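Fold these two proteins, one after the other.
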Amino acid sequence: MFQPRPYGKAELALLYQPCNSPQSAVKTLIRWINACPLLKEELTAMRYNPRRHTFLKAEVEAIVRHLGEP
């Protein structure tokens, strides 16, 4: 069962796409985030920093709400 907690970007991306390389998985996850305006808006309200290498627990919860569990 998936547990929301802080995740490294590559760590979370690989949960969604385990067959991809870490770099490819992160790029795809970021594309999915950018393609979902409600998710992007929610992350912006949380002061999400795209340069940070981790997702905070609240950010992970928002991602799961919009994209589903990995």
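Now the second one:
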Amino acid sequence: MEIYKNLSRDSGVTHYEIGEDYIDVKFIGKSTIYIYSNSRTGKRHIDKMKILAMNGQGLCTYITQNPSVKKNYNKRY
């Protein structure tokens, strides 16, 4: 997994991994990795999350402020 740049210095995201149709996200203080995919979360959201992850800012806010994203992960491990 890639280390999230956390340019704002207050993100809840620590790591991410981008795939063709998904993004895995690890949050601070959690051992769980959340898998968000096109099939569950929606391609528009996944594409936006990928951009935010690569930019290192806004990913956690995007997840927590979008109800259609927050609870729509495929699985966690």
